[in-house]
Amino acid sequence: MRVALLALRLMCLAWLWPVTQLNSSNFPNKRRHKELYLGENTKQKHGGRVDLKIKKLDSTKSLLIKSEQLLRIEDHDFAMRPGFGGSAIPVGIDVQVESIDSISEVNMDFTMTLYLRHYWQDDRLAFPSSNNKSRTFDARLVKKIWVPDVFFVHSKRSFIHDTTMENIMLRVYPDGNILYSVRITVTALCSMDFSSFPLDTQNCSLELESYAYNENDLMLYWKNGNDSLRTDEIVLSQFFIEDFQPSFGLAFYSSTGWYNRLYINFILRRHIFFFMLQTYFPTMLMVMLSWVSFWIDRRAVPARVSLGITTVLTMSTIITGVSASMPQVSYVKAVDIYLWASFLFVFLSVIEYAAVNYFTTVEEMKKLKRAKIPTFNATQAMAFDGCFHDNDIDLTSFPEVSSTPNTERNTQSRNSTASAPTEGTRLRRKHPLRQNLSFIMSNSYMIDSYSRVIFPLAYLLFNIIYWSMYA
Length: 471
Description:
Blueprint: H1 2-46, H2 49-71, E1 89-104, E2 109-121, E3 135-137, H3 139-142, E4 150-153, E5 155-160, E6 168-172, E7 177-189, E8 201-210, E9 218-222, E10 229-231, E11 239-253, E12 257-270, H4 273-290, H5 301-324, H6 334-371, H7 378-381, H8 405-417, H9 433-442, H10 445-470
Parallel strand pairs: 1-9, 1-10
Antiparallel strand pairs: 1-2, 2-7, 3-6, 4-8, 5-7, 6-7, 8-12, 11-12
Helix pairs in contact: 4-5, 4-6, 5-6, 6-10
């Protein structure tokens, strides 16, 4: 019985075997048709973007691989410079200054954005070309070949722009000539001299040098001489750029030797109009305002004192504001000379009123003591100031001073001196300094009269000397 069942099963398997083989041979065609159908639907739905993106990635990757194979990058050691062991490799430099972003007097530095281009020849990258056309690459291939290690001397900060991709270009020619260009923003030191600030002219320079290769391995030079440095239209708020000039030199380091160094020199002349509005004109007005007190009555103490203190405090504020925007240098600047000289004029106008007030008080006390007046009113006291004429005031109440033999003798001597001179003689009057000072002290109101002329003339003379020296 078991044998019969086993024979029946074998007969069924033998009958179903051809059908199974026929179905399995038809499955690949069905799957192929299904994939074709799904692909067409996807392309119709998304406009073919998925397939194009995949194709683009594959082509970029394959293009890079083909470029590396074309340049035979894997066949050479690019950690070594071209022509290692031989003469120094010449590297030409070409710079185009895009902008000078800022100039800081406090930090003594400047920020510049520029295009730095290198030119050299590397026979290891030469490739055959039927049309002699160059090939251009981005930053991905730069990391796999040798490039010059140029850096900026005395730089504080620098970076390569990377929006939207790293701003790096590599162009290789069939004969092995290479152009390597980068867009860089660098902040570098500029040793400024503020002796003539703000009427100064500053000389700044950006210095380029190879970091690892001295003059025996790498020779830096300006590719096109003076034409290697080009600038765009640069406009600065506080400076006028007078000149851009490239130069060349050598730098020596005791441990590594001599290095080639390239200089980008530029001269900056400061615009004076801003400082005229913010510093010089207000200072001049404050000095002139202090002269107003010379025309105010000397007995108006509150008016003259408040005016003098106000001008002194305003000058202090101007000096503090200018000093806060400048570096703390150990020498005197031109603006400091002007501000402190003007401050001295304002301060002397306050001292002038103190002298006038003091001499007036002394003069009144002497007159009162000489006249022996026990009591007096305000009208009589003002008669001694010189502000009112004696004819306008009734002085009958004052006692008459009795004459003495000394006064009579002095009167006779004055009369004899006043006699007519003989023929052929010449009169000479001497005014010693002490006598003049005593005269001014006894007539204190004349100090204001002299100050009205002396102060403006002295300040005018100071301005003529100052602007002739620094302008």
